[in-house]
Inverse folding.
């Protein structure tokens, strides 16, 4: 009889299959009871088959990029499609200093290697540069301005080419290497006084037999190997050629945050003489250390390797730009790219890119310019890449969690547990990215699943954008949410934190008046707690409910109640699932999320008929103003004097709500701005 079951990998299933096979053979009769000799043999056979099947299955999994789990295998499979995983990245800082008393010095050279000591997170780190920097001396002073330094130690490693050695390998022995700092020079022999710089390349496009270049690949233990040309693709090395490789080994992400530096470098004049350290000024920090990162993770390799391969190192589609950018800029946490034809109005010939770096919220102007230059070698002719600043789309919750008092007598404990569960979700891959999606059902499930005593929850969803005010300037503002707004039958679907404008001493807020299902009107008002809104400007802008967009007409904002010149503007989404569209980065904000514990008197038996049961509304109850937990600006506590303006008051009825209207008038020039 054929042994036909090959798919079962469980030990008991394998054992059952063997017994079924033996049951068909009448020569064996003592296998059906435990303790028999044949039963022991069956156990041994099943165990051996189980181990073999497991190893075979794991080996098969390690043969494919999607299922491989060991880094060496993932790297090897990625290498087959020409992808080199990103190395560690040293934290970078920018400093300046000057040297005085150089009366007879023409040029001054800052030698490669150790430059500064810097402290980050109560730990001291050393910073280096990979190459010499030479400046001219003017009036006895040498100025080293805007020098980029790298956290880590500069290492030098030499190789001598031996053509008699079969398959000679040039392996960099150190881990923790930042490959962007790698410099390779080749001399004809060790005694030679001149060397040729070899350039690291990503692919062989444009490389000929005389190109002084090399490829880099990751090998075992997170080390790297240099690959030189064979005389057809790239220049071939000759016997006794002397290779010098210099690179910086780094602590990666730990080096971020160093802001104060002390000089420990070496300075030499044009004759090779040392410079007195007493003539060196204090180091001025232009930019603290940032952008340090760990080696590319296995999951990242699996994601980006196929995308880089599909793009063939050319940026044509938006997806190509996303893949290529992550390759040329390792500090990418999330990236969104879209064509200008998707804009309103369309901007043809451009591709817009928004990046969330791993460390920080925004790209510096220097980084943007650098990335534009790098992308030009990948981009199609006639297409201009343009970087736009990150725009956060915040999601907040108002949750009412009902609990049975018979099973939980400490609502604070339940509230803390719910907060912890939602905090964990706020850090998940669903949000905190472009194209992220806040999943309403998942948040409800998390709340209900925290404890068996929680019987249900009614949770409301709020969207928020932060308007960055141009203080003291007349400006227009545009806030895009990318999600349709919910419309209540009254005003105040849109609410904001306070700000001050010309001609009004009290804090001003904004809200909306519904015109129809597609659009409404923004108005400004003042408000005292418990009082009646005083409308000071009826036509302050427009709101487009169907596309989720707020346009604010020209206004001069003098200060804001929230620090950093921020006005928080909230809206209610039409769908509780909030999606980050195009350049919107979805962020679940736990700081402004509220959790209220409510006793479930029906489940507890206190009021089984439900006659006294309180049900919270599933819709957000309109309030006049937005109340925020964000830091308050100290300037908001003082009264701002206004320039000349005229004020008048009248009565005005808005959506069934009676309010007082005050109008102001003034004139000035106008600029345009947007929120973040």
């Amino acid at each position: 009889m054929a042994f036909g079951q090959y798919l079962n990998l469980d030990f008991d299933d394998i054992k059952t299959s063997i017994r079924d096979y033996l049951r068909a053979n009448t020569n064996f009769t003592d296998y059906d009871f435990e303790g028999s000799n044949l039963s022991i043999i069956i156990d041994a056979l099943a165990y051996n088959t189980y181990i073999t099947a497991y190893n075979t299955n794991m080996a098969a999994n390690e043969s494919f990029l999607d299922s491989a789990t060991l880094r060496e295998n993932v790297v090897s499979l990625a290498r087959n499609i020409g992808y080199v995983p990103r190395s560690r990245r040293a934290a970078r800082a920018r400093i300046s200093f000057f040297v005085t008393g150089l009366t007879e010095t023409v040029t001054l050279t800052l030698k490669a290697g150790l430059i500064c000591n810097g402290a980050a997170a109560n730990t001291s780190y050393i910073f280096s540069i990979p190459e010499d920097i030479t400046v001219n001396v003017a009036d006895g002073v040498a100025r080293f301005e805007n020098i980029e330094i790298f956290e880590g130690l500069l290492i030098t490693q030499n190789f001598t080419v031996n053509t008699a050695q079969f398959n000679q390998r040039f392996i960099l022995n150190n881990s923790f290497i930042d490959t962007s700092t790698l410099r390779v020079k080749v001399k004809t022999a060790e005694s030679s006084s001149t060397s040729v710089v070899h350039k690291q390349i990503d692919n062989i496009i444009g490389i000929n037999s005389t190109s002084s270049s090399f490829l880099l690949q990751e090998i075992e233990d997170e080390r790297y190997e240099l690959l030189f040309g064979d005389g057809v693709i790239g220049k071939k090395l000759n016997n006794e050629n002397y290779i010098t490789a210099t690179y910086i080994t780094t602590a990666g992400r730990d080096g971020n945050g160093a802001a104060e530096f002390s000089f420990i470098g070496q300075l030499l004049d044009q004759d090779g003489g040392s410079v007195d350290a007493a003539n060196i000024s204090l180091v001025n920090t232009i930019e603290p250390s940032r952008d340090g990162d760990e080696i590319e993770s296995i999951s990242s390799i699996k994601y980006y390797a196929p995308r880089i391969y599909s793009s063939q190192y050319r940026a044509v589609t938006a997806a190509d730009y996303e893949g290529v950018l992550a390759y040329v800029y390792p500090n990418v946490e999330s990236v969104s790219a879209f064509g200008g034809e998707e804009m309103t109005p369309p901007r043809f010939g451009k591709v817009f890119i928004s990046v969330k770096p791993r460390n920080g919220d925004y790209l510096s102007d220097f980084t943007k310019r650098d990335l534009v230059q790098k992308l030009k070698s990948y981009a199609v002719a006639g297409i201009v890449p343009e970087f736009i600043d990150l725009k956060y789309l915040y999601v907040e919750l108002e949750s009412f969690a009902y609990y049975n008092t018979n099973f939980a007598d400490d609502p604070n404990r339940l509230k803390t547990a719910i907060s912890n569960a939602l905090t964990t979700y706020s850090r998940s891959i669903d949000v905190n990215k472009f194209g992220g999606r806040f999943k309403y059902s998942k948040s409800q499930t998390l709340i209900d699943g925290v404890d068996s005593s929680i019987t249900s929850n009614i949770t409301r969803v709020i969207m928020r954008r932060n308007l960055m005010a141009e203080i003291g300037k007349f400006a227009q503002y545009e806030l895009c949410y990318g999600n349709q707004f919910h419309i209540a039958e009254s005003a105040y679907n849109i609410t904001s934190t306070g700000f001050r404008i010309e001609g009004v001493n009290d804090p001003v807020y904004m809200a909306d008046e519904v015109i129809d299902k597609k659009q409404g009107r923004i108005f400004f008002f003042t408000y005292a707690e418990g009082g009646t809104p005083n409308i000071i400007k009826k036509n302050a802008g427009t709101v487009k409910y169907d596309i989720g967009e707020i346009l604010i007409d020209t206004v001069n904002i003098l200060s804001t109640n929230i620090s950093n010149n921020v006005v928080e503007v909230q809206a209610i989404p039409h769908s509780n699932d909030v999606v980050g569209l195009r350049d919107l980065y979805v962020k679940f904000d736990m700081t402004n999320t509220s959790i209220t514990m409510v006793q479930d008197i029906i489940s507890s038996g206190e009021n089984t008929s439900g006659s006294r049961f309180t049900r919270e509304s599933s819709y957000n109850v309109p309030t006049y103003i937005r109340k925020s937990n964000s830091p308050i600006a100290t300037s908001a506590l003082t009264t701002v004097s206004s320039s000349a303006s005229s004020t008048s008051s009248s009565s005005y009825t808005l959506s069934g709500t009676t309010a007082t209207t005050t109008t102001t008038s003034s004139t000035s020039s106008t600029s345009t701005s947007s929120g973040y």
Summary: Residues 154-249 form one domain.
